[in-house]
Amino acid sequence: xxxxxxxxxxxxxxxxxxxxxxxxxxxxxxxxxxxxxxxxxxxxxxxxxxxxxxxxxxxxxxxxxxxxxxxxxxxxxxxxxxxxxxxxxxxxxxxxxxxxxxxxxxxxxxxxxxxxxxxxxxxxxxxxxxxxxxxxxxxxxxxxxxx
Length: 147
Hints:
- This protein is of the alpha+beta class.
- It has one domain.
- The protein has two helices and eight strands.
- It is globular and about 35 Å long.
């Protein structure tokens, strides 16, 4: 399964490596798959694949340096799940959702294809491992309670 691996350094690399060992072998009943290129910064489950990228940047819609910056968009919402502030972005083109752990040092991005819309969210299964391996940044980039 092709998944682009974020380039990481220092503490984020260590956190992503640790996260790769904490991830479940099944997610929403979907089996874990190999990713290409092989990286501790990526994971995938099922077909179509739910993908995870550790060490990702802020979603463009929340990054003031991006041409996609629009934090007030109706396609963005936030929720605290498992002690992690997740920004959820609805991708209108393919009707998928992308969740990003915007308050952590190692930003984890999870893409959920539209095939899983309305089914159990994988975020409750992933959040404990994500929260365990990466510290919260003091300058939280997104306020889940205002979403």
